[in-house]
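Lecture notes, structural biology module. Today: joint structure prediction for complexes of two components.
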Amino acid sequence: MTFTASRSIDRRLFLKAGALTGAGIVIGLRLDDPRAAAAAAAADFAPNAYLRIGTDGSITLFADHVELGQGSMTALPMIVAEELEVEWASVKVERMPADPSAWPRSIMTVGSQSVRGSWNSLRAAGASAREMLITAAASRWNVDRATCRAERGMVVHPASGRRATYAELADAASRVAVPGAPPLKDPANYRIVGTRVHRVDIPSKVDGSAQFGIDVKVPGMLIATVVRPPVFGASVRTVDAAEARRVDGVRDVIQFENGVAVLANDTWSALKGRRVLRIDWDRGPNASVTSETIRSEFLRRAEQPGAVARNDGDAPRALSTVPRSLSTVYELPFAAHATMEPMNCTAHVRADGCDVWAPTQAPTNFQRTAAQIAGVPVNAVRLHVTMVGGGFGRRSRTDILDDAVRLSKRLGAPVKVMWTREDDMQYDFYRPFGIHRMQGAVDSDGWPVAWMHHVVTQAALGGGRGGAGGVNRDAVAGAAELPYAIPHIRVENTITESPVPVAPWRSVGHSQNGFVTEAFLDELAAAGGKDPVELRRRLLANAPRDLGVMELAVSKSNWGRPLGPGQGRGIAVHAATGSYVAQIAEVSVRGGEIKVDRVICAVDCGIAINPDTIAAQMEGSVVYGLTCALKGEITIDGGAVVEDNFNDYPLLRMTETPVVETHIVPSRAAPGGVGEPGVPPIAAAVANAVFAATGRRLRRQPFRLNA
Amino acid sequence: MAAFTLVVNGTSHTVDVSPDTPLLWVLRDTLGLTGTKYGCGIGQCNACAVHIEGNPTRSCRVTVSAAASRRITTIEGLSPGRLNALQQAWIEEEVPQCGYCQSGQLMAAAALLREHPRPSDAEIDDALDPHLCRCGTYQRIRRAVHRAAATMRAEAGQ
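The predicted structure, tokenised, for the full assembly:
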């Protein structure tokens, strides 16, 4: 089989037909990060996914997206099946078989981009295959292809009653040139996209059969527990492993690059051995870092000029000339990912190759990194992606893989590294601490006229001090794009370091800026005597999707109608990952305790693939955001994280969870993300509701009324 | 190390482990029943919930010596060979997201419905509040419990 290139009119869409293993149609496609710059030219087109229609009737999408419980493994087949005219459950998803070193950019299941990055390519691939099958059938029957149509996995010629399955046609169809611009279905004719289908990953999750990374067992496997430095940047001075080695079941104690590992036949023996390890640490340079020292440094930096991300009008001057201005500081704590399945990875390194079993959000990165550490070619690494017990950004990091591959290589045996909950909580890569210096003013009619926002935080994404002029796009995500028609807006960021490791945490920079901007806007509303909804209506006049999603939420609430004593409503509107979310929270405050009773959540995510998945993600995002807003925080003392389990970093429980009502804006726009955008607005919606109930402002998470 | 006899899902097993081993690790590592999950090890999350003599119990807080010779049921033994009304309801309501906490949730829900065939929201909260779900599936769990309860009552002709 030869590769034939075909460039469509849409420059971001390149399809090639070629051979993979097995006969039939194979179409190579790129599932791109929609944020990326223009795609490569056809000459160096490298697919990062394939669609195969086999002569055995199988339909397979080879792609490296991972199912985290967010429904990606259901949504992607739905999109393909719609254009291909098959039952969606007949489209199976498997990992890419090709050599990842040939792919210019790997697919990670992050950034709420599984659907929005695939929407165009998957439709085009499904439609192309459909057209190729129709052409093959028409040719076989010697009829005009316009008299044939595809339906339910077959091509039919109604005039003669002839029909052929895709399996029967696949071989002939594979010799048809891939159409460059296949006709796409009119959404009005969708049978699958937009319907509530049952997710493929659920059945195994209700009977205990789903295999997560922590469940992996391979012959000859040792369990490893790793003791890491108790202070950021500390190092091992001496290890006394004598008593640990004497524990029944312990097989070895190894000091390696990441700490000291106890290896045993089973988990409990490993943990018992670890308990009696005696390690003397050189505490290193960070032993006096505390939350207070971090806060002080960030506050100090907030008073100095930052890198300018947005500068409309002259905000500093406007602030100094308008009589009614506000100046305040918002603060967000470090937050832990706290996936229910603690970090773990299993590796078996051999001379000629390596097997890795991991719950990962970044399969290609894991495969490449395993190859590097094991010292084998990337092709010789077999990565088995297990079910993932929560991702939220944590599982793109390769630190756990590093543990497993290094230890397995040292031992020459399969090793499962299992972190305890304490390890997981103390050696996370956290959502950064943030200090936000806010200044704003309203004019004599009470409308906001100036807005200044200085974000001081660590770089969770985009590394170091960021791009042009020191602006870090993630640090100001949702802040620089403020949609409100305020004439003078200045947004700055200062990227500040601390020894605390940080990484993307569900909604990343938006998790800070959604709270700060929507809570501060509420302060300006009060300062100007405006109802928060009325204020947004005016200021969003040129932002139709922000406005539209807000109006949907308002229409489903009783905004304006009084609640009981100690009760209040608050609203927040925020756009992230290409979607728009408005949330109205109803709270009751009693004795200083905040109870969130109900959240009306409206979402404009463009065309809805599976409405039930969207609702589930909104519900889950609200709970995720409320844990940070209401429950605990990660604090630093003596250069280490203080909290180590759910007793001191509690998660939101069933009794604390509001009823979440999700309403989806009907849309035919390209899909936006769904996994993350429900997180940013919830804290502000609650803070604003508490203000309505009590007159008290909450500018720091977690919220404490009696603090 | 010592020998213990465990009756798990109706089958007797003899295991040779340290007496202080939590039942959780005997189930997972020694018997290979990985449906019961480790979440915290200190009884705070309830991902490890099993039934001992029918009562929901945190297996991370029970030693193998304390569990010996008692009737233990894990998620694998909840409804062998077919999905029960609760599991069907979990599927119908699309309850799980990542799914890691759901074995424990189902074990607690099963015990609840045995005691309270027509549970109120408050009774559901009482039984399931100890179970953490980071993905936030709580309101669907509540709906699924109500749904299963209705199905079970209908099947029993109530």
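Point to remember: The CA atoms of residues 545 and 580 of chain A lie 7 Å apart.
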